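I am still getting used to backbone structure tokens and would like to learn alongside you. Would you supply a protein for us yourself, any chain you care to pick? Start from the sequence, derive the backbone structure tokens from it, and show both lines together. Go ahead whenever you are ready, and we will take it from there.
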Amino acid sequence: DRTTLFVTTDHGMMPVTDLVNIERILHWHDVPGTAIASGTSAFIYLDEPGAADAAFEALSGYEEFDVYRRGGFPAYARLGDGPRVGDLLVAAKPPYFIENAGRWPWFLRWLARFGPRITPAAGLLAATHGYRGDEPGVAGIFYAWGAGIAQGREVPSLRSIDLHPTALHVLGLEPGRPVDGQVAEAFLQEQMAGP
């Protein structure tokens, strides 16, 4: 009656079927720039700032990923406009994965320049995370038991940022400063819910 246990993860995992060879795609379309990728996204740093419109147009034709211009990045990415942010952002759609060829085994690196644009991932990668948070299957798990938690209640979803203020609320504490989240009252016992 004095213990509460939260079990959670920061994300789920989704199957990967194909690798996007972003360097090959840039070369194929004569986009002068460098791709820095690892996972489900890549920054494209253009050699010529004036090439942004043409590069965006060329990369927008792929169903495997979305492309965004600097200054128009999606809100979910939480990217600013600092000097390390690329000119373009390429965001893979499930079940695709983007990787720098420099991280491939040495005997496969030639594929970055001359290989296929999309390559099967079999044997190289089974699953990943980093897709949009609203993609089905991306969500992590969350279980709560014990003092202050309603028994048998299922909640369809919980934002990660709500965990901190909720844990403090169960402990009878207040955050020391403002936080982004709010108390997730949906799974608390009725007498615990509220300010």
